[in-house]
């Protein structure tokens, strides 16, 4: 009798845990990042090198987490991925943007401002190697969302970010310098682990900064 009840209960608990995980902001955020990585591997050539989920230390005693850093002879692209559904309203200079799903609205940090902070940290890391004008901010929303306001040219949906990156065709970073940049970033990036991610989230909470909340 016990065994007849035990296994259905275990199965129910496993299914519940899986459903909870797939609905979580963590999964949705990581899925969006996986999409960008996959698109890069399929649509960009070998001259592009993608570094994913890069957590860099900041002063004093903080961290910043960059979804993707795309290295290329045509520039360095700092990519922020947003896996949001519904309508998106926002302006370049607005502090917060709005996501609307049916009759419910949610505020989230302007991703342009968010990625600007990422860019400044990376500029400091590469200050003796790369001029800031060769770094470019890219914001990528998955196609499940729909823009309801005009967006800057570097805020894109789906695969359009690839076309934007490919629009940079002038070679501005020699191969040897590009390798130095990659080695410098890999040296500075913190170890990819649950502990690193947890410490970053705790830092954001201490600073009263929004953590990733994908809906």
From TrEMBL:
Q: Which residues cross the membrane?
A: 6-22
Q: Which PROSITE patterns match?
A: NERD
User: Under what name is this protein listed?
Assistant: NERD nuclease
Classification via InterPro entries: NERD
Looking at the record, the residues that make up the NERD domain are: 28-145
Q: Which UniProt keywords apply?
A: Membrane, Transmembrane, Transmembrane helix
């Amino acid at each position: 009798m016990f065994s007849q009840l035990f296994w259905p209960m275990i199965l129910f608990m496993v299914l519940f845990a899986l459903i909870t995980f797939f609905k979580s902001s963590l999964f949705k955020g990581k899925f969006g990042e996986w999409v960008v990585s996959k698109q890069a591997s399929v649509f960009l050539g070998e001259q592009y090198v993608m570094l994913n989920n890069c957590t860099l230390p900041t002063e004093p005693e903080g961290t910043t987490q960059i979804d993707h850093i795309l290295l290329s002879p045509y520039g360095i692209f700092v990519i922020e991925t947003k896996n949001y559904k519904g309508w998106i309203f926002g302006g370049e200079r607005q502090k917060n943007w709005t996501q609307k799903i049916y009759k419910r609205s949610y505020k989230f940090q302007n991703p342009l401002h968010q990625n600007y902070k990422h860019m400044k940290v990376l500029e400091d890391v590469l200050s003796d190697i790369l001029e800031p004008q060769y770094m470019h901010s890219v914001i990528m929303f998955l196609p499940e969302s729909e823009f309801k306001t005009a967006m800057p040219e570097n805020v894109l949906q789906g695969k359009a970010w690839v076309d934007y990156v490919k629009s940079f065709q002038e070679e501005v970073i020699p191969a040897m310098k590009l390798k130095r940049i990659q080695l410098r970033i890999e040296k500075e990036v913190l170890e990819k682990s649950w502990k690193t991610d947890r410490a970053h989230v705790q830092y954001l909470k201490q600073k009263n900064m929004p953590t990733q909340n994908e809906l």
